[in-house]
Fold these 2 entries.
Entry 1:
Amino acid sequence: MKIISPTYILTPNAILESHSIVFDQKIVDILPTNDALQKYTNLEVIETKDNSLLMHGLINPHIHLEFSANKSSLKYGSFLPWLYSVIEKRDEVIGNCDTNCIEKTLDESLKSGTTTLGAISSYALDLEACSKAKSKVVFFNELIGSQAVMADTLYGDFIKRLDESKRCKSDSFFPAIAIHSPYSVHPILTKRAVSLAKEQNLALSAHFLESSAEKEWLQSSSGEFKKFFKDLLKSDTAVSDSIEFLDILKDKPTLLTHCGFVDEEHLNLIKKSSHHIVHCPISNRLLGNSLLDIDQIEKKEIPFSLGTDGKSSNYSLDMFEEYKTALFMHKDKDLESFAKDLIIKTNIDSAKALGLNTGSIDIGKDADLLLVNLDFEVNEDFFTHLILHKKDIEMVFVNGE
Ligand SMILES: [Zn+2]
């Protein structure tokens, strides 16, 4: 077992001083350092510097690693032009990121403090790197396909990828299912995938109401998506509507990503089904989408967390950058209490949605920890400063290693 006695320990309820944490794969004890020296002997001592902080590892529940090579290949500013650019440049962007590139991206994410990722995998090109990653990975095999004639082929390919990922299951790699979105997956396929997720107790994720174009298409088969579906998929009408989609998901709590265009009826259904909302403020800004109404989802007591989305719609996979952006974009929220919620609450809720025993420093939780050297004084605006200032992350532990 290991012992660490930093200047500060960040727990959900307090910032502890003169305390130690004893851990192996899990957090075994949190106690005053004086008591720890009496109670425990022969522990491996982790050295720390002055003004060091031990905090929980961060969770990024929504990322697309296969698109990590993108810098300026895709068109930003508005959703449909971006989507056309993804289709046009897909082979080039994906082709430029081999396993080595995905390993580097995983490393970059870990060093920025993320110990758990929800990786949406479209083609399983990231399976090898994710199954060997040092961070925890919930590997969401993505199902896509709106045409009924292609349903069996696409479902077969999805099952093949899911089965391959199941063979890699470990204490840090968890196979899971993603349904791309209500507009791009036929309800027959969605139903099959949801049944599978329920039967096998796999985490489930879906993009939901990301753009105004999506909302219009699902509501009335009109708007910017009309031409897109006619030209590319020879289709005139949406395969599903947003309420029908939520009805299929009603008995399986799901991570719904974006939700920028939800209304009261959607939120009531999301609450009733115990879904979780993943908010990606940088991605939403870059693709010209609406900002999530956090006050409204807090009023309904719907849990939410932040995610970076992929480098297909972000310049960074650093969760602190995402928190900082959220802090500035949601300008009406109280600064310090919102900063605290971003650091503490969203990680606890994110772990719960992913079905993992992580996201906070508590006895019995997995020892997913960050040792951070602070370059500012800890005071009543601690969480704001933790988000604002550049982090010197000295060590990262995943399952105590
Ligand atoms: Zn996404």
Note: The CA atoms of residues 190 and 242 lie 13 Å apart.
Entry 2:
Amino acid sequence: MSRPGSSDEPSRSARAEGFPLSLGDQLVANGCVTPRQLDLALQRQRAGTGGTHEAHLVGRTLVEMGCITQSALLQCLYHQFALERDAYTVDETVRPVIRMERVVKILDNRRVLDAVDLSIPANRVTAIIGMSGGGKSVTLKHMVGLMKPDQGTVWVGEEALGRLSSRELTRVRGRFSLLFQGGALFDSMNVFDNVAFPLREKTGLAEAEIRLRVMRCLEEVNLVGMERKYPDELSGGMMKRAALARALVTNPEILLLDEPTAGLDPIIENAIHYLICDTFMRTRYTMVVISHAVPEIFNWCHHVIVLHRGKVLFSGPSREVVTSRDPVIRQFIRGDLDGPIQVI
Ligand SMILES: Nc1ncnc2c1ncn2[C@@H]1O[C@H](COP(=O)(O)OP(=O)(O)OP(=O)(O)O)[C@@H](O)[C@H]1O
Ligand SMILES: [Mg+2]
């Protein structure tokens, strides 16, 4: 599977206005499969699930039926995503789902967040980038209420987190999944139990239902067959995929991913980006991805926020960040040693 922008992308026949077509209709509109193949796949899903067919998994069924390869499917989904990404603008149709207003956080006498104002658009992919130690992970922890601001307000929808009781905060947190920096799988549990963990902790579901959901998630991240393996038997990329499955298993409305590709080789990094794109195109969850994969990450998100020394330097469509004239942003994107940021 090649990197985005390489020559073997499918022809650009579909238009971004196609959204919100169903996933299957998008694949047909893109010329990835024929309407007949889609019908057969949906029929097969209905037969296999007793009528409750899962449209978001239709791509998997098309692959199983041999109508399209896994790699071509991911390329098709990426192509559709790229059309949407390029058409994305911040206007009144974009609803913010998380807002931070003048948030200040002081840690060890340092103003780690210095009056941060930001909005995360609903049902889009937002990347947060910036120098190490710039406050990205701390920002993410504020969004989910794991850290409380010293000043300012964090809003999730219409709810100000600081005004909620602990019970209400738990309910709001139920809308989120957070993939921590480093993945943080439990070493003593195999892949199945790691992914099942949030369901066993947070829901009263029966084991049979838990098994169904875990296996479905492992299928979504292509880890079927690995469920009995322990973390130390997995490669770095498999660990990230298992952690992603654990984040997805609760069907979160908002998915926060803290450096999902850190420490991976470029091929696995590319594969994880495709997987995140695939997940977004199937589920339309709001996603926030902290990443050091600059400039690659700009291909994979609608919106970019640049955090620097506790302040938001840029917030806008990903295609605009690359043309920013801010000297700090330019230096960061190019990785230059010369510029306003002195590292040596
Ligand atoms: N719990 C804490 N107690 C004290 N200081 C903290 C705590 N958490 C973070 N910090 C400090 O806050 C600053 C920002 O940390 P943060 O983890 O948000 O950086 P980051 O932008 O995510 O960096 P990286 O890209 O390296 O992950 C750092 O100086 C860090 O040492
Ligand atoms: Mg961090």
Note: Residues 107-108, 112, 130, 132-138, 181 surround adenosine-5'-triphosphate (ligand 1) (CB under 6 Å).
